[in-house]
């Protein structure tokens, strides 16, 4: 019996490893999409041994490079194998403004434009029953979209990583809602998972208040396994396969206000992003 294919970005990270472990245990063939193939290979060996699933492959991808994203997707398109699961898990929280080769602020590329392009390019390999899950964050609630500053600088004002991170997660949430409507008739589901605040390297502050952060907030921070749980449910649970265009937290769908479901910039965001990725599609 042919194994169904799952693609997981950032599969060698904290939550990525937990997601990959669960999906491998469920019997899927997996492509671990990793920026660092050496790190990915170490995790691949560990997960194959733990799960007994040897159909796990590591392929390099750099979401800060749209040509890298396109090359990754083109390789899969050439193979022509149907994609059952796409988990857009990888993310970054930059400590300073860095501009990519595509002229994008790096957080925006890794957290939003890269996953957008990857998803758009892989859609021809998806169909009835395919699931797309995007890893968002509670910070979407502080997000703002200032065009064109969003793409080039992350925000209109000076660089501040938490607001910029929130902006990218708002964009990814709006992409989730918009794409869900566009592919619903094809039987493809698209949902968003909020992991909560998770103990991974991405939240390390590298600032003077690090000890205070640990003392006051560490008891409330989830483990990578706890953080990954909602995304895993959206990928694998039978019940989750029956809904699309939802935001999910703590393993349950959570209603969004019309501020998001009918966001005034949703269409503009789609059109602006399409212009940026057009040459790769």
Molecular structure report:
This protein has 281 residues and is an alpha/beta fold. The protein has a single domain (5-197, 223-274), classed as Rossmann fold. 44% of the residues lie in helices and 14% in strands. It has helices at residues 14-25, 37-51, 66-79, 106-122, 149-153, 161-183, 210-217, 224-236, 258-261, 266-277, and strands at 5-9, 29-34, 56-60, 83-88, 131-135, 189-194, 247-249, 252-254. Strands 3-2-1-4-5-6-7-8 form an eight-stranded mixed β-sheet, with helices on both faces. α1 packs parallel to α2 (37-51), α4 packs parallel to α6 (161-183) and α6 (161-183) crosses α10 (266-277). 43% of the residues are buried. The model is unreliable at 202-209 (pLDDT under 50).
What proportion of the residues form beta strands (DSSP E)?
A: 5-15%
CATH level-4 homologous superfamily: NAD(P)-binding Rossmann-like Domain
Summing up helix and strand content along with how strands pair, one would put the structural category as: alpha/beta
State the strand order across the main sheet. 3-2-1-4-5-6-7-8
Number of helices: 10
Topology overview:
Blueprint: E1 5-9, H1 14-25, E2 29-34, H2 37-51, E3 56-60, H3 66-79, E4 83-88, H4 106-122, E5 131-135, H5 149-153, H6 161-183, E6 189-194, H7 210-217, H8 224-236, E7 247-249, E8 252-254, H9 258-261, H10 266-277
Parallel strand pairs: 1-2, 1-4, 2-3, 4-5, 5-6, 6-7
Antiparallel strand pairs: 7-8
Helix pairs in contact: 1-2, 1-8, 3-4, 4-6, 6-10
Any key phrases for this structure?
alpha/beta, Rossmann fold, 8-stranded mixed sheet, 281 residues
């Amino acid at each position: 019996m042919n194994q169904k294919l799952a693609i997981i970005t950032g599969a060698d990270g904290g939550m990525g490893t937990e997601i990959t472990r669960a999906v491998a245990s469920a019997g899927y063939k997996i492509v671990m999409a990793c920026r660092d193939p050496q790190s990915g290979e170490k995790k691949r060996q560990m997960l194959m041994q733990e799960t007994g699933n040897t159909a796990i492959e590591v392929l390099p991808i750099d979401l800060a490079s749209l040509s890298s994203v396109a090359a990754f997707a083109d390789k899969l398109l050439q193979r022509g194998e149907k994609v059952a699961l796409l988990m857009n898990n990888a993310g970054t929280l930059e400590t300073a403004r860095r501009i990519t080769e595509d002229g994008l602020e790096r957080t925006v590329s890794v957290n939003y434009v890269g996953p957008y392009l990857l998803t758009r390019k892989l859609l021809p390999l998806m169909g009835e029953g395919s699931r797309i899950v995007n890893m968002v964050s509670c910070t979407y609630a502080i997000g703002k979209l200032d065009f064109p500053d969003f793409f080039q600088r992350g925000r209109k004002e000076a660089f501040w990583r938490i607001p910029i991170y929130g902006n990218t997660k708002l964009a990814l949430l709006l992409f989730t809602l918009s794409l869900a409507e566009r592919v619903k008739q094809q039987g493809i589901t698209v949902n968003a998972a909020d992991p909560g605040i998770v103990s991974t390297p991405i939240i390390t502050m590298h600032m003077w208040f690090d000890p205070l952060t640990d003392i006051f907030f560490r008891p409330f921070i989830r483990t990578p396994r706890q953080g990954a749980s909602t995304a895993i449910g959206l990928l694998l649970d039978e019940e989750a396969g029956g809904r699309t265009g939802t935001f999910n937290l703590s393993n349950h769908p959570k209603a969004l206000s019309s501020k998001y479901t009918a966001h005034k910039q949703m269409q503009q965001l789609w059109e602006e992003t399409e212009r940026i990725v057009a040459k790769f599609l």
